[in-house]
Amino acid sequence: MPTDLIADPITQTAAQPVVPVGMAINPTLDWAPFLSIPIWVYITFIFVLLVIAVVFYWLIRMGRLSSVKGWGESIKMMTQDDAQVWVISRIQKLTIECMAIKDNVLSSLDPTVIGMWYVSSPAGVISIGGMRAVVISEDFDRNRDIVSEIALCYTLDNFNTDLENLKALATSKYMDTISKLPEEERGFVEKPRVMKPVEKFQQYVDYGRGCLAHLYPVGIDTPSYAMFAPNRFRRYFPLGNTSTHFGAENMMEARDLNIDKKEKGFWDVHALLAASVVIGMIGIIAVAFFPMGG
After folding, report:
1. Is the model's pLDDT at 261 over the cut of 70?
2. Domain region containing 130
3. Rounded to two decimals, what is the model's pTM?
4. Do 74 and 60 fall within a single domain?
5. Taking residues 55-74, what's their average pLDDT?
6. Residue 36 domain-assigned (yes or no)
7. Do residues 125 and 164 share a domain?
8. 8 Å CB contact between 70 and 109
9. Is the Cβ–Cβ distance between 221 and 155 less than 8 Å?
10. Residue 194 forms part of a structural domain
11. In whole angstroms, how far apart are CA 273 and each of 27, 266, 277, 279, 287?
12. Together in a domain, 180 and 124
């Protein structure tokens, strides 16, 4: 005889809604104070928002580091004849590239880029993440020495600002030195050099370098902390020494070193073809006058 199945009565209260069997977590997380939605739904939603916020945060950070993305890409491309190069454009945009280096001359792997740079300063080689790299810029045909540029700009700014005091100090030092020497030895003491403001490369070559060597015989001062401004040292670049100009000069010199080859004339090119035609015609005539067979 079949037995009737009778469900147990369910009592539902406003404070504690009924949770189906198997879906209950615990009385605290199943509590539904608002819109009959368990509190664990709100907690889960908050954690999902946190995950999304972390993802967006790192996407923004990665976008800001896009300029150094080439660090890893250049390592994958490098061979023994290549070097990692940090390039500063004229608008101060930084990119990291892989370039070929031969005889201390850097050149792009792209044959359409004719710019070249001469690695003249070993101190201009930096180390980032255990990888050695060279710093260059489009407006100069030599590698950039960051520390030397900061020190030179700092010293020349101080030199131009305190020029009158330095003149008096150099003159006083010279007079004090010769006053302690005999008359016949005074001519061997170096006189103070011409001191005028140093504002461009030619002035630095003419007298600025000598003034600094006289004032700082053991080396110029370098600030312990300073920001590197690529354009600050531009006024001390030799005019016209751009990477494109340097590359064009190297390409012209390389062409001049090629062995001169005499251009082939008409018969040099077509002599074999003409000989073949003549031999063929002789064969046809011979067959015409001396037929084969009886």
Report:
1. no
2. 70-137
3. 0.60
4. no
5. 79
6. yes
7. no
8. no
9. yes
10. yes
11. 101, 11, 6, 10, 21
12. no
